[in-house]
Design goal:
Blueprint lengths: L1 H13 L15 E6 L5 E4 L2 E5 L6 E2 L3 E6 L13 H12 L1 E6 L4 E6 L1 H36 L1
Parallel strand pairs: 1-7
Antiparallel strand pairs: 1-4, 2-3, 2-5, 5-6
């Protein structure tokens, strides 16, 4: 009994001198989103988080996140063909993949007005490809008929 009391007294005397450091606590990690146009819907990893301007930073887990001004691909009707491909390409223009490290607040700048110009350029390139293909098919047909 006396040894137990001595051991307890010894532990109580040494206990206040010990300090514990706890560095494994989670640090604040967030994304701040800025856009050049008001009332644009914003999605993080496919979840709607609000419309611009967002009043505060959004807390996220550390790692890669997708910030988009278009809804997830689930909203595209199930159809095959060039129009679905074009729609997916346009949606890709409004997405940014962002790496957020633990303890950091990352700023993501979305440019809604610039997407309009990029869509026009994309459509111009797509239409020029149609004329090129039509010219090549016509040339091939002319060569085939000339050879007969």
């Amino acid at each position: 009994m006396i040894t137990v009391l001595l051991l307890a007294l010894l532990l109580l005397v040494n206990l206040p001198g010990q300090t514990l450091k706890w560095d494994n606590r989670a640090r604040y990690t967030a994304i701040t989103i800025s856009c050049d146009t008001d009332s644009v819907p914003v999605y993080i990893d496919g979840y709607y988080v609000g419309k611009t301007p967002l009043p505060h930073a959004l807390t996220v887990t550390p790692g890669w996140h997708t910030v988009s001004i278009f809804p997830p691909d689930d909203g595209i009707p199930e159809q095959e063909g060039p129009s679905k491909r074009a729609m997916k390409d346009i949606i890709r223009l409004g997405k940014q993949d962002v790496m957020v490290e633990e303890g950091n607040v990352e700023l993501v700048v979305m440019s809604y007005r610039a997407i309009d110009a990029e869509i026009e350029e994309y459509q111009r390139q797509t239409l020029s490809g149609v004329w090129l293909r039509a010219g090549m098919i016509l040339s091939l047909m002319l060569l085939i008929t000339w050879g007969l």
